[in-house]
Amino acid sequence: MDITLTYRDTDCIPVSDVGLDPAIWARESAGRFRTVAALDAAAGARVAGALEDIAVLNSADHRAFLLVSPGARVLAPFVIFASDGPLQRAEQAEFLWNGRALLPATSSRVETPELGDGFSVSTAERHESGDFGFRRWLFLGTTRSVGMVLGPVAPYGLVAVEKIAEEIVSSVRVAGYTSAADRERLDELDGAVSRLAESWPA
Fold it and tell me: pTM (2 decimals)?
């Protein structure tokens, strides 16, 4: 899948060329990043552990990255995918929010130079391993959809890496993608989030 983007090598590590031993790849990648980002040994070890955990996320149909806040205090996976065809309405809703949410989702309309109009949702969710924050972006194209996921990350840490993710999102380009410019559908998604919030138990 031909996805291009720009990022700073001081706060983003691409998951690529992992090879047969993710642990070795993680240690070597973390060592290089530690030098670039001027991290201490403890922070470098945290980065290595996170890279080993997310090494399995990279595949032919999406790209994965580790976003790193200053001092490596917050580490979060960031994944980009492009569907083979346009996501259907039910698939769009399933991607953006789910029944694990702890609080009403917050949403926003977004626009990038390459992907056009899109929609973003932030959620706090309860999973078996704990409570986590997520932010998702969805862009609707004429022949395919582009989605991006930031998280899981500790809910309080989401804000520490959101800006990094937003800058990457604004640069993403996907070969063969043309925006559907379906503002009516984006309005419907925004309205759905608002209705969910209004009906949330007090």
Answer: 0.93
Task: Encode 130-144: b = buried (16+ Cβ within 10 Å), e = exposed.
Answer: eebbbbbbbbbbeeb
Beta-sheet strands, E only, within 57-105: 62-68, 75-82
Beta strands in the chain (DSSP E): 3-4, 12-15, 62-68, 75-82, 106-112, 116-127, 130-140, 145-153, 173-174
Would you write out the chain's pLDDT as a tens digit for each of its 202 residues?
A: 689 999 999 999 999 878 778 999 999 999 999 999 999 999 999 999 999 999 887 677 789 999 999 999 999 999 999 998 999 988 998 898 877 778 888 899 999 999 999 999 999 998 888 899 999 999 999 999 999 999 999 999 999 999 999 999 999 999 989 999 888 998 888 888 877 766 666 5
Segment holding 191, helix H or strand E: helix 183-198
Quick check: 39 and 200 in contact, CB under 8 A? no
What are the residues facing 31 on neighbouring strands?
none
CA distance 105 to 127: 16
**Does residue 132 contact residue 154 with C-beta atoms inside 8 Å?**
yes
